[in-house]
Design brief:
By secondary structure, this protein is α+β, with helices and mostly antiparallel strands. The chain has three domains: 300 residues, no CATH class; 113 residues, no CATH class; 59 residues, Orthogonal Bundle (Arc Repressor Mutant, subunit A), CATH 1.10.10. 41% of the residues lie in helices and 20% in strands. The protein contains 16 helices and 14 strands. Helix 1 crosses helix 4. The longest helix is centred in the middle third of the chain and has 20 residues. It is elongated. The termini are far apart.
Length: 492
């Protein structure tokens, strides 16, 4: 299809996106039994007769999981239902040892909420249809080159995850671009992290996302043919998958090609979605109320106590960082979305660091070291005191920008204090004009070309002489002081 046709399709059609996000809760035990809820244990070692569905066993609800979902609902502006119910969702699949899943159906705990997102400086409110509680399934491992069911030699089942408390957050189809979908998942993840209800590690499956995507002519109220992209396990994958799918739909509609309602899978390596199964009709799960569990009727005073205990949420924290720390919106949002990083920044500021400088060190060099080491801030040897000292010494001119970067790298590796590293590595700048005068005179004498340019009014040539001063002093000279001395000498 030509670029002109593709551009015309973009003008004629509108994308409609809704997300279903599944969140594994960080409780000590599973949803309906006492098995430990922990990631990474050997297969099938965190199971019991209850979560394996043995005859005669009875489920017992996890009170902490119910508290967590109420906390999530309140943070998302939901109405907490006075009466909710668990149902049995009946289907047969190897990862479901009971052949049914305990889930909420028509009476969820949390309904009618919202989440505000900001894209390109504009804020939009995305509706939340429902937030409901269920148990997770086991994990199927398909043995074969593809790692998928198609072409697999056999499959293995790990039931450690079966019965883990799982919250599903279902949005309204209010998003219109891949950028908005990415912003929504990023903000939702930040909210969940701030609440402390989940570690939201997408690479471990504790946060997973399904995207419902359709395309319709601009101005039409009816939705187009919907496709569900299953189990997206990173924010980047969501963004790329939605981009691919909306372009596929627009191209098909512009070319008069039919679309079918189906589930599709995202191939990260190839950057495409592939057909999963057709979904022309709703699957009959034969829902009926779970006979072994009583209805949930949360006490109003208990709900209000949870509301009063909610922490500062990312959007509130970002606004405060803009207002009190003078951070630009993008930087404030980035740091406010990670509680650990936000706390680190505030600790550094409390130690005297200028906020914007500290924030730049965090999101720049320190983030780079963490990525390279494949670790996180909690495991790092760098502390808020290190960052505060870097900011102070750089502002004082005691160390150069290059020297500060070298000191941070050493502190990241060893945890040694910045002052000790600066002195041990000889990183302290020479800012004493008297100590630099002799070297500046030598550089002026040895570089007549740049000197002549400066005397003719070409001030940019000063940088060449400053570079020579830095070379002679092995980087210890304060470049600002050196530049001032050079201009002073040549002005005579």
């Amino acid at each position: 299809m030509t670029a002109a046709v593709t551009e015309r399709a973009a003008d004629l059609y509108e994308t409609v996106i809704g997300l279903e996000c599944h969140v594994e809760l960080s409780t000590a035990t599973k949803m309906f039994c006492a098995c430990p809820n922990e990631f990474g244990a050997p297969p099938n070692t965190r199971t019991c007769p209850v979560c394996l569905g043995h005859p005669g066993t009875l489920p017992v609800p996890n009170e902490k999981a119910i508290e967590h979902i109420v906390r999530i609902g309140l943070a998302l502006g939901c109405r907490i239902a006075p009466h909710s119910l668990f149902h049995r969702k009946n289907y047969f699949y190897p990862d479901m040892p009971k052949n049914f899943q305990i889930s909420q159906y028509d009476l969820p705990i949390c309904i009618e909420g919202h989440l505000d997102i900001t894209v390109d400086g504009a804020t939009r409110r995305i509706g939340i249809t429902r937030v409901h509680l269920e148990e997770d399934t086991g994990k199927t491992v398909h043995a074969g080159a593809s790692g998928r069911i198609s072409g697999a030699d056999y499959a293995l089942e790990d039931y450690n995850r079966a019965g883990v408390p799982l919250v599903e957050v279902v949005s309204e189809p209010d998003m219109r671009t891949a950028e908005e979908a990415r912003a929504y998942l990023t903000e939702l993840r930040a909210v969940l992290m701030s609440l402390g209800v989940s570690d939201v590690r997408m690479e471990e499956g504790s946060l997973r996302c399904d995207a419902n995507v359709s395309v319709r002519p601009v101005g039409r109220a009816e939705f187009g043919t919907k496709v569900e992209i299953k189990n997206l396990n990173s924010i980047r994958s969501l963004y790329r998958a939605v981009q691919f799918e909306e372009e596929r739909h627009r191209t098909a509609l512009a070319g008069g090609e039919p679309l079918i309602q189906e589930t599709r899978h995202w191939d990260e390596d190839r950057g495409v979605t592939t057909h999963g199964r057709s979904k022309e009709y709703a699957f009959d799960y034969r829902y009926f109320p779970e006979p072994d569990l009583s209805p949930i009727e949360p006490d109003a005073a208990w709900v209000e106590a949870i509301r009063a205990d909610l922490p500062e949420l990312p959007a509130e924290r970002a606004a405060r960082f803009e207002r009190e720390l003078a951070l630009d919106p993008a930087l404030a949002t980035r740091l406010a979305g990670e509680p650990e990083w936000a706390g680190f920044l505030e600790a550094a500021v409390s130690l005297g660091a200028e906020p914007r400088a500290a924030a730049n060190w965090l999101t720049g060099d320190l983030a780079g070291h963490l990525n390279e080491a494949k670790t996180d801030l909690a495991q790092a040897k760098v502390t808020p005191q290190h960052v505060a000292d870097l900011v102070r010494l750089t502002a004082e001119g005691a160390i150069s920008s290059a020297g500060a970067k070298a000191a941070l790298a050493d502190a990241f590796a060893t945890g040694e204090p910045i002052e000790a590293i600066v002195d041990a590595k000889g990183l302290r700048q020479v800012s004493d004009a008297g100590a630099l005068e002799v070297i500046v005179d030598e550089v002026i004498a040895e570089n007549p070309g740049p000197v002549e340019q400066i005397r003719k009014g070409k001030d940019g040539a000063v940088n060449a002489l400053v570079g020579q001063v830095m070379k002679k002093t092995k980087g210890s000279a304060n470049p600002g002081v050196a530049a001032d001395l050079i201009r002073s000498r040549l002005a005579d």
